[in-house]
Amino acid sequence: MSWRSDPAGVGMTSSPATGVGEGERSPTPPVASFTMSPAEGESPLRVLLDASGSHDPDGEIVSYAWSFGGSGKVLYHVFESNIIPSSVVVTLTVTDDGGHTATCARSLVLY
Length: 111
What we know:
The chain is mostly beta strands. Helices cover 0% and strands 47% of the residues. The chain contains no helices and nine strands.
């Protein structure tokens, strides 16, 4: 937050440091990024998904949605396939406080 003088001279009001006024949408979309560990292995495979690298340059991320139906910034998920070897695409969609979204996808190999 930054502080600025109230135009009416009554006191101080707060506003986001980005200069976006209250009630306005942030103009810059977020950046989606994640890591997965491990990125390959024997099915079924428990994988740590970490979207901590995602960010919003002029606000904050309010939701993390994963292609398999999960949500959250950091979570574990078990991937499995009856078709071996198999490549599974994992997609993350982040939404910021201005309603903008960004998506990132990575492939996971199961054998």
